[in-house]
Write a structure and sequence with these properties.
Number of domains: 4
Helix content: 25-40%
Strand content: 15-25%
Strand order of the largest sheet: 4-1-7-8-9-10-11-12-13
Largest sheet: 9 strands, mixed
CATH topology of the largest domain: UDP-N-acetylmuramoyl-L-alanine:D-glutamate ligase
Shape: globular
Distance between the termini: 53 Å
CATH class of the largest domain: Alpha Beta
Structural class: alpha/beta
Number of helices: 30
CATH architecture of the largest domain: 3-Layer(aba) Sandwich
């Protein structure tokens, strides 16, 4: 892709002198002894620093003009620059590595002195322009926003910047600068870059670190109807930095799907009156705020690096699209923190910033099919869902759009929509492990507990945040009380124990089962054990199992300990110290059931008599653990337009939860079936039985028991013969388990054959159109080149996986058309099904071809691709990032040939496609 025309960028804003006080690890031996090295450094910050970052980040794409810092000596030092002071200390680079070394980072921010304003001479950008391509403003609430004499020519009469990027760290938007930008007709060209904390300070109901889905929805609500809907949301774009783990972009322009949207984007026109969710670059392993704790210290400059990434996007919109800009910006923020002030004894306060600049300045790099090449490859990218102008080629009814509303579901983006897509992903988890199968899916992982279920993630992360705050607040003398609920065998105690062991390392928990207590003396004895630990300075972790037993008999006994940190025994009052109380439910499976939510009449009266509401009011949090069985809903949540089907689970993520438990059980109880590459050698039919069975009678314990009762073959293979006999199966699963095993599903060898057939069909079509193997960036002359034009066996593993992704969901694609795969000799009796060869697909063919495009499109979007006139994998742009109806017919033929190859491969391996119920 050729380099764009060089743009002009003007930078100005608040100016800061940063004074860095270095606390060196080697102190002088006496007061009169000289320091071992420099203890005070001065550095030009604010807009001066941002100018340097932009010069490095934009490189040859832009000519950057900014305010030049004054010389070290002279009257200009009394200018409008503020003075900020920081203390630097050596910190471990990362607490998560045993030998990670150490680096300089800030240990304390001492504050900032406002400029003295003794000089009235304006300090304007060098060679100021009234109409630069990009105007960049650094507003840190230090006077620039209120001083019109300091504003550049682009903000004065006759000024007309092509676009404006405002970096701001203040929640106050009632000032002359903001009024000039908003009322001066610049809103449609204005991009705001800020942190989530700025939104919170101005009153946004924005949670912290619960789940990426919830973050997107809450930001959408803030810009759609919150305080920001009246000002920020009227700008062209708002970019929000979420710690070091996410960057969200909201835009008033059409999403870049197809050429019309691209044209509108490049012209800077705004289609909507308020910004809408555009993209979120996120780390699937972390949530907002969870990346910092293991890497102590502070680093400034992160927001400037993100701003530079956005400015580079403004200068090179096709070569550096917004997802790549967000991913690079996030990588630069992390690099800045990790490198810090360097590892040498001498402090280098801009070492991290320079490393971050290098991340931003590097040319986009495509993956070579092996290890990731681009710094942005560490992150994934959520995209808009369920809007009337966005679909993957499938019919989406207005009723479905209305029912789903603005709800976000990144896991669905990863798995695909519908039950069979979820089962296909669950099968991959069992065979390859969640680390490979669920890489893009946001997760909550504490010790050995792992969940990708949105509700579980949100609630257990909320408990984690509460525990962290309690651990760090010594002034809170009351016990912290939380409750956990779930069906028997759901793993509720395991989940909370793993969470507590992560937050309070090395602390052994006290466990009491209240259903075994007969007298108040039993409970008081337990209280004394807790108190003994607090006397010795510990913060005991206490599990009160089955606390709701015996008709809530014990609730009233906990009211004083929970509220006043004391209990009464033998006529004496005994105070507690700080402690963690975990109440595990035994008779109710959810908090809502326990709290009698929505219940009235006699049941509510009895609950009140047992002090239930008083107990609930003393809890600080709760979590419901779902377990491997589905949470049954009155209808099928995936198809709200259909009639109620009480036999159909709306909780499709239970397949994923089952798969995670099954995979862990296989690794622990049958390690011989897992090879060195992490692939489990287990029949797909057996996996289908474990995943599709209607019910596990004892929750996760049943999965573990079945695996431990099984006997894999001598060669490390787990097949149907490895399962326990039917009478033992009935102890743990419903009667349909064996039927699911008998019907089976596509095994791994066939998936590999289908993947190879898909690749070969694509390869044949590309060859017919004159393509040859090679990098399209190597040579722009004919013939055109593509790096994957090679036999399937020669493809790197990453590129093979692209083909397997489509092969695994053959069941799902066919199910959307009411079709199914059956072994040719085991098809249902005649009259209940009809074999459908490829030639007789009719209207189904278009649906299957569209589904093929949808699979490809979901994968590319979550990897950060955008539409462009020219396909460039390095910049993550592709001409087919479009609705299926807008894909050129010459490109649709690739998907058509892939569908044809699937039917041929199934037939060659003894399978047929049938339409059941005919």
């Amino acid at each position: 892709m050729p380099n764009p025309v060089r743009k002009t960028v003007v930078v100005t804003g608040d100016l800061i002198w940063d004074y860095n006080l270095a606390r060196h690890p080697v102190a002088p031996v006496a007061h009169h002894a000289p320091p071992r090295s420099t203890v005070l450094q001065e550095c030009a910050g604010g807009a001066w620093f941002l100018t340097r970052v932009l010069e490095a980040a934009c490189g040859p794409a832009a000519e950057v003009r900014g305010v030049k810092p004054p010389p070290p000596e002279g009257p200009a030092r009394k200018s409008r620059a503020a003075k900020a002071y920081q203390i630097w200390t050596h910190f471990p680079t990362s607490l998560r590595k045993k030998r990670g070394g150490s680096t300089w980072r800030m240990s304390r921010l001492l504050g900032c002195q406002s400029p003295d304003h003794e000089s009235t001479e304006a300090e304007l950008p060098e060679d100021d322009l009234p109409s630069p391509d990009v105007l960049v403003l650094d507003d840190q609430c230090l006077g620039f926003r209120d001083s019109e004499d300091q504003w550049p020519a682009a903000l004065r009469a006759g000024g007309s910047p092509g676009s404006v990027v405002l970096k701001t760290s203040s929640p106050g938007f009632d000032n002359p600068l903001w009024r000039r930008l908003l009322q001066g007709g610049l809103a449609g060209r204005l991009t705001i870059v800020l942190t989530a904390e700025v939104l919170r300070e101005r009153g946004a109901a924005l949670s912290r670190g619960l789940s990426w889905d919830q973050t997107i929805e809450e930001l959408d609500d803030e810009f759609g109807g919150g305080a920001s809907s009246r000002d920020l949301a009227t700008c062209r774009r708002v970019v929000v930095l979420l710690g070091a783990s996410g960057i969200a972009s909201f835009s008033r322009c059409d999403q870049p799907f197809g050429s019309p949207a691209k044209d509108a984007r490049n012209e800077g026109t705004c289609t909507y009156d308020r910004v809408r969710f555009e993209r979120l670059a996120y780390d699937s392993d972390d949530h907002e705020g969870t990346w910092w704790p293991g890497r102590p210290g502070y680093m400034l400059g992160g927001l400037s690096l993100v701003t530079a990434a956005i400015v580079r996007h403004e200068c090179e919109p096709d070569r550096f699209p917004i997802p790549l800009a967000c991913g690079r910006g996030l990588a630069a923020v992390r690099t800045n923190h990790l490198v810090g002030g360097g590892t040498d004894q001498q402090l280098d306060d801009e070492a991290g910033a320079r490393a971050g600049m290098d991340v931003l300045a590097a040319d986009p790099v495509a993956s070579d099919g092996g290890t990731s090449a681009d710094p942005a490859d560490r992150f994934f990218f959520a995209y808009p869902q369920y809007t009337d102008d966005f679909a993957f080629g499938f019919p989406v009814t207005p009723a479905q759009i209305a029912a789903r509303g603005r709800r976000c579901d990144i896991l669905r983006d990863v798995t695909g929509a519908g039950e069979e897509y979820m089962i296909a992903k669950a099968t991959q988890i069992v065979l390859e492990g969640p680390e490979n199968a669920l890489r893009p899916a946001p997760e909550a992982r504490y010790g050995y507990f792992l969940s990708v279920d949105r509700e579980e993630i949100t609630r257990i992360n909320a408990i984690h945040n509460l525990l962290i705050r309690y651990r760090e607040n010594d002034e809170d003398g009351r016990p912290m009380s939380i409750a956990v609920f779930g069906r028997p065998g759901s793993g509720k105690s395991f989940a909370v124990k793993q969470l507590l062991s992560t937050v309070f390392r090395g602390e052994k928990a006290l466990e009491f089962n209240l259903s075994q207590f007969t007298t108040e003396e039993d409970l008081h004895s337990a209280f004394h054990q807790v108190r003994d630990r607090t006397v010795h300075g510990a913060v005991p972790l206490v599990f009160w199992d089955e606390f709701d037993a015996e008709n809530l008999r014990w609730l009233k006994e906990f009211l004083a300990p929970m509220q006043d940190a004391e209990f009464r025994s033998g006529g004496l009052v005994h105070p507690f110290g700080r402690s963690i109380f975990v109440f595990a439910g035994g008779t109710k499976h959810t908090f809502e059931d326990f709290a009698r939510t929505g219940v009235e009449g006699e049941e509510w009266v009895r609950f009140c008599e047992q002090k239930g509401p008083d107990f609930v009011s003393r809890l600080r949090g709760y979590v419901n653990i779902k377990g491997p069985n589905p949470v049954w809903l009155p209808g099928c949540a995936e198809d709200p337009a259909t009639e109620e089907r009480p036999d159909k689970p709306g909780d499709l993520t239970h397949y994923i939860r089952r798969a995670i438990v099954l995979r862990v059980s296989l690794q622990r109880n049958c390690p011989e079936i897992v090879d060195a590459q992490g692939r489990a050698h287990i029949d797909a039919s057996v996996v289908g039985g474990f995943l599709r069975v209607r019910e596990y009678k004892h929750g996760a314990r049943s999965i573990v028991s079945l695996v431990s009762m099984s006997r894999p073959g001598r060669r490390g293979h787990f097949g149907p013969a490895s399962l326990p006999p039917p009478h033992l199966l009935k102890l743990h699963v419903s009667d349909d388990f064996s039927e699911h095993v008998r019907r089976g599903q596509l095994g791994m060898p066939l998936v590999e054959l289908l993947a190879e057939a898909c690749h070969q069909a694509w390869l044949d079509m590309m060859t017919k159109q004159g393509y040859v193997q090679g990098s399209p960036r190597d040579d722009t002359s004919v013939p055109p080149k593509h790096p994957q034009l090679m036999p399937y066996v020669e493809l790197p593993e990453e590129w093979k996986e692209e083909n397997r992704r489509s092969a695994r969901v053959v069941h799902a694609k066919l199910a959307e058309c009411g079709l199914a795969v059956r072994a040719a000799g085991a098809a249902p009796p005649a009259g209940t099904s009809t074999v459908v060869p490829y030639e007789d697909l009719g209207a189904f063919r278009d649906r299957l071809v569209a589904a093929e495009h949808g699979i490809w499109l979901r994968d590319r979007l979550i990897r950060g691709y955008s539409y462009a006139d020219v396909t460039d994998d390095a910049s993550r742009t592709h001409t087919d990032i479009a609705l299926f109806a807008d894909v050129p017919e010459t490109h649709k033929v690739y998907n058509t040939e892939i569908v044809k190859s699937v039917f041929a491969t199934l037939e060659a391996n003894g399978y047929v496609v049938v339409k059941e119920g005919s």
